[in-house]
Design brief:
By secondary structure, the protein is an alpha/beta fold. The chain folds into 2 domains: 119 residues, 3-Layer(aba) Sandwich (Rossmann fold); 178 residues, 2-Layer Sandwich (Dihydrodipicolinate Reductase, domain 2). Helix content is 39%, strand content 26%. The protein is built from 12 helices and 15 strands. The strands form 3 sheets. A 7-stranded mixed beta sheet has the order 12-11-7-10-9-8-15. Helix 1 crosses helix 11, helix 5 packs antiparallel against helix 12 and helix 7 packs across helix 8. It is globular, with a radius of gyration of 20 Å. It starts with a strand and ends with a strand. The relative contact order is 0.16.
Length: 331
């Protein structure tokens, strides 16, 4: 079978990471890249043995079957719209947009055109979380009753990033909203959120929170807690605990290596990851490999734009709850 030809828009750190996956997958080939603001574009062209093409030329090239959008968030919707009628499968990094109405419109357009569009919630493809989900499907702990998701970053991003990202709920917790719904398999009935500024005065001055707690209840009464912080002293903290009627499942933080030292002074383990791209390296690779497989099989990928819309919907209501101090009941 011929290799599936791909183009990538945006060659920042995520775009380059996806490019590395495409060139190592035996079923795919990177033929085109586009990033007019990237000073390294010619070096990247040589590295990936591909062409630099305009967006219009990529859209009109019928040989290109897969497109990855790794550009700034505010460009996502317009780029998806441009490629919906080209019969190309589209992968778009999260979030689709910060404006819920715009995302609602793109959900309808994707549905109308029956296009293959995948959203980059990579944590679904982390081997640890994927195995946890499999245990839940097999009902090894019975009926889910409570889920606790902990997500803490080693240090805050820049203030420039904070002001453009949509804030802690739409940028950081949006991954956790998607993971929560993915694991529990139900819609959310109510959401209550607390936001505080315990880490950075600059984040507070920028109008955002650096610490958050979110409590959600599903339509059947299951409880989900999400804990977020922009600071840890011990590394990238990414844990999930699911309590059920017959037991409990946990995903703890994987260390950099599995080496453990024990001697007369005691026992020590390797430290945790300090960067999301190393902690989720397998997840990033697995999601693109899965997307390639969906193109090959002509199947609809998940998570899709509806998942992207729902995660943003939860993020927006969490922000509303934090701002007003009220529990928000969802339709």
């Amino acid at each position: 079978m011929k290799k599936i030809k791909f183009a990538i828009l945006g060659l920042g750190r995520i775009g380059r990471l996806h490019a590395d996956t495409i060139i190592t997958n035996p079923n795919s080939e990177l033929v085109s890249i586009n990033d007019p603001k990237n000073n390294e574009i010619n070096n990247l062209k040589k590295k990936y043995l591909c062409q630099v093409m305009s967006i219009d030329d990529i859209a009109s090239d019928d040989q290109i079957k897969g497109l990855l959008i790794c550009t700034p968030t505010e460009t996502h919707i317009d780029l998806i719209k441009k490629f919906l009628h080209t019969k190309k499968a589209v992968f778009c990094e999260k979030p689709l947009d910060l404006n819920l109405k715009k995302v609602e419109n793109i959900v309808q357009l994707v549905r109308d055109t029956k296009s293959q569009v995948m959203v980059g919630f990579n944590r679904r493809f982390d081997p640890h979380f994927a195995k946890l989900k499999l245990h839940l499907i097999q009902k090894e702990i019975g009926i889910i009753e409570q889920i606790i998701i902990t997500s803490r970053d080693p240090s805050p991003p820049t203030i420039e990033y904070i002001t453009q990202s949509g804030g802690i709920f739409k940028d950081m917790a949006i991954h956790d909203f998607d993971m929560a719904v993915f694991l529990v398999g139900e819609k959310i009935h109510s959401i209550s959120a607390l936001g505080s500024n315990l880490v950075s005065k600059k984040i507070e001055q920028a109008g955002d929170y650096d610490t958050a707690n979110i409590l959600m209840k599903t339509v059947s009464g299951k409880q989900i807690s999400i804990i977020n912080s922009r600071r840890t002293t011990y590394g990238y903290d990414q844990r999930v605990e699911v309590h059920g009627s017959k037991g409990i499942l946990k995903v703890n933080n994987p260390p950099l290596t599995e080496i453990e030292l024990a001697n007369e002074s005691g026992a020590t383990k390797e430290r945790l990851h300090t960067f999301f791209m190393t902690r989720y390296a397998d997840a990033y690779k697995n999601q693109i490999d899965y997307f390639i497989e969906c193109i090959k099989k002509k199947s609809m990928p998940k998570p899709d734009v509806q998942d992207g819309h729902y995660a943003l919907y939860l993020a927006e209501n969490a922000l509303k709850s934090a701002r007003t101090g009220r529990t928000i009941y969802l339709s």
